[in-house]
Amino acid sequence: MTERSAADEARIGELTAVVTGAASERGIGRGVALRLARQGRPVALLDLDPVGLESAAAEARAAGASHVLTAQVDVSDQASVDAAITAIERDPAAPPIGALVSCAGIADPTPFLEMTSQNFLRTLSINTLGTFHLAQRVLPGMLEQGLGRIVAMSSTAAQDGGGNFSTSAYAASKAGVEGLIRGLAKETAGTGVTTAAIAPANIDTDIMGGRLEGERREQFVARTPVGRLGTVEELGELVAFLVGPHGGFTTGSTYNLNGGLRVG
Ligand SMILES: NC(=O)c1ccc[n+]([C@@H]2O[C@H](COP(=O)([O-])OP(=O)(O)OC[C@H]3O[C@@H](n4cnc5c(N)ncnc54)[C@H](O)[C@@H]3O)[C@@H](O)[C@H]2O)c1
């Protein structure tokens, strides 16, 4: 294998970062997109929600992104993902895709015995298959340019068997994401493409059935060893490292960001 140079990876910051799940106003995808935008990076924002995408795009422009694209997409639908990525690739003002940050996801609190196979499949189709669709679609371009970063949101639920607002289907879907990220790291070894999963818990967003307030918020805080909820800004910092010029010597790993909820 020819020795690679870390210096060659500096140009990652000039390439387009695709962020899925970017519409949610207080969500992780939006926080990640704005963090990268503040570095002046070109960003492509993908989500099911076109209205949220518009406000996310306005914020990303105001934050300093050098180029902003949006695409309405259902990540569970391969044709929809293909159309969105094709549109980004055809935009003459958009640099090639250098990074994918897969944040689109759902949590389903249905207990195991009440869960139908349709419920189960829906969670897997969005959380796991969605990540697969995106990664498979952007990978050829990354391989061709010899540089790319693929980061996907897992969850503490993958290691712990369920989250605060989710049960076994969610845990299975996120364990699948982590396996996919490990497998992809092996399959892309030495190509300049690296992968990572992030396993968050108790980040202050609306995914746990709406805004955490009052007694419910106090319960979440009491369960979090560091004594507070995590922020999308903290998550954005981790992603900025992983998809930045110094993130190229880690691949296939899962990064916990959970306030000490689960250590190790
Ligand atoms: N907030 C947390 O504490 C936490 C903990 C563990 C994991 N996560 C993971 O982080 C990711 C982001 O979570 P969040 O808290 O920002 O949630 P959120 O609900 O605020 O945002 C999720 C986004 O995904 C989008 N989305 C849902 N289904 C989609 C589909 N089929 N196609 C395209 N977009 C779709 C939604 O429209 C929304 O904008 C998720 O994968 C979630 O499982 C979050």
Mind explaining what this structure looks like?
The chain is an alpha/beta fold. The chain has one domain (6-256): NAD(P)-binding Rossmann-like Domain (Rossmann fold, 3-Layer(aba) Sandwich), CATH 3.40.50.720. It is 42% helix and 15% strand. It is built from 8 helices and 7 strands. The protein has helices at residues 28-38, 50-63, 78-90, 117-145, 156-160, 168-187, 214-222, 232-242, and strands spanning 16-20, 43-47, 68-72, 97-102, 148-153, 193-200, 253-257. The protein has a 7-stranded parallel beta sheet, with helices on both faces. Strand 1, helix 1 and strand 2 (43-47) form a beta-alpha-beta unit. The protein is globular. The two termini are 33 Å apart. The chain binds nicotinamide-adenine-dinucleotide (NAD).
How would you summarize what this structure contains?
Helix content is 42%, strand content 15%. The protein contains 8 helices and 7 strands; from the N terminus they run βαβαβαβαβααβααβ.
Structural class: alpha/beta
DSSP strand tally? 7
Architecture per CATH nomenclature, i.e. the level-2 architecture: 3-Layer(aba) Sandwich
General form: globular
Count of discrete alpha- or pi-helical segments spanning 4 or more residues: 8
Q: What's the alpha carbon Rg, rounded to whole Å? A: 17 Å
What is the CA-CA span between the terminal residues? 33 Å
Number of domains: 1
